[in-house]
Amino acid sequence: MGFELESAGLTHGNGFRALQRVSLRVGRGERVAVIGPSGAGKTSLIRLLGTALRPTEGRLDVLGANPWRLSAGALRRLRARIGTIHQSPPIPPRLRVVTAIHAGRLGRWPAWKGLLSLLYPVDVAGAHAALARFDLADRLFERCDRLSGGQLQRVGIARVLYQQPDLILADEPVSALDPALADAALGELVAESARSGASLFASLHAVDLALKWFPRIIGLRGGEVVFDLPTARLTDSMLHELYAAEGAMLPVQARDAAAGATTDPEADAKVIRLDTSRGR
Ligand SMILES: Nc1ncnc2c1ncn2[C@@H]1O[C@H](COP(=O)(O)OP(=O)(O)OP(=O)(O)O)[C@@H](O)[C@H]1O
Predict the structure, then answer these.
(1) Which of 15, 22, 54, 74 is the most exposed place for a label (fewest CB within 10 A)?
(2) Pocket lining: 231 vs ligand 1, CB cutoff 6 Å
(3) What is the DSSP string of 20-62?
(4) What pLDDT score does 274 carry?
(5) Which pTM does this prediction carry?
């Protein structure tokens, strides 16, 4: 099992109810995208699944365990099996890329190896291979603060793939990438999930990327699940309804790439249906 939520809710410290009555089950190796307008609760949901936040209502199981009933040591071991890709990777700026990649395995390595990796690159070949998947192998010994936002985001993805987690959580993982790189990076994430059997749960701003790469899509709005469907059963009107508060246009990556963007929702619907079958 990847994770299971039963009637889960999350109320933030200021009393704001970011998630309510969320029931979801994602199996081992399953690939699911969550989409929804700004403020829908996508990041809150991913933080809940990553055990950064604790549900204030309902039940959460991650990789077969209720994280909040585990001992401190067991919770640490569970977290080492979850790889979270953040929209802005929390990487100290002066760190070298190779060390940032190695940090992905800190939770799995014995303490001595983790400490050694901070002083001396212990697995250059492994870090090189992870970066090569994102065309960044030549940046291995670069300092992270010398990378562009898009390069840093790809380092964040490479770090999680290097970690080899059982559950990959990705919060807007390609938001800083241009359309071609975003597509390639999602392809790598999907390929890794297929290769390793890790479950992949990603929030995506671009609806067309979600449709292209994921066989199951969850629509979230106002902290509630509006739909949870196989991609093939999603209709354009469901998508437009989900984003109704943001206007007639669906957020799509393809629009940026397509010459002559359109303001016609029907034409946009055609754009997002383009080439959505690969990778699923
Ligand atoms: N720490 C917090 N304290 C209080 N409210 C919060 C906190 N974090 C998020 N929220 C609120 O919870 C709601 C959901 O936020 P969240 O970041 O989960 O949405 P999102 O769907 O990821 O949005 P976006 O697509 O804009 O990133 C928002 O209204 C937000 O203001």
Answers:
(1) 15
(2) no
(3) EEEEEEE-TT-EEEEE-STTSSHHHHHHHHTTSS--SEEEEEE
(4) 36
(5) 0.88
Domain extent for 40:
1-72+205-280
Task: Check if 40 has its Cβ closer than 6 Å to any atom of ligand 1.
Answer: yes
Our answer on whether the CB atom of 148 is closer than 6 Å to any ligand 1 atom is no
Structure tokens at 196: 């390793």
In whole angstroms, give the CA distance from residue 199 to residue 30.
5
Query: Does some domain include residue 128?
Result: no
What's the pLDDT tens digit per position in 72-116? 999 999 999 999 999 887 788 888 999 899 888 777 766 666 666
For residue 195, being part of any structural domain is answered with no
Nearest ligand 1 atom, CA 47: 18
How far, in Å, is the centroid of ligand 1 from the Cα of 55? 15
pLDDT tens-digit series, residues 38-52:
999 999 999 999 999
Task: Please tell me the distance from the alpha carbon of residue 2 to that of residue 64, in angstroms, as a whole number.
Answer: 7
pLDDT per 10-residue tile (average), the chain, 280 residues: 96 94 97 96 96 96 96 94 89 86 76 66 86 93 92 94 96 93 95 96 95 97 96 94 85 60 39 43
Ligand 1 contacts CB of residue 99 (under 6 A): no
Q: What is the pLDDT of residue 257?
A: 47
* Structure confidence at residue 121 (pLDDT): 72
Ligand 1 proximity of 14 Cβ (cutoff 6 Å): yes
User: How remote is the CA of residue 44 from the centroid of ligand 1, in Å?
Assistant: 6
Helices within 133-178 (DSSP H only): 149-163
Question: Do 218 and 227 form a contact (C-beta atoms < 8 A)?
Answer: yes
Number of domains in the chain: 1
Taking CA atoms only, the protein residue closest to ligand 1 atom 30 is: 39
Q: Whose CA is nearest to atom 24 of ligand 1?
A: 38
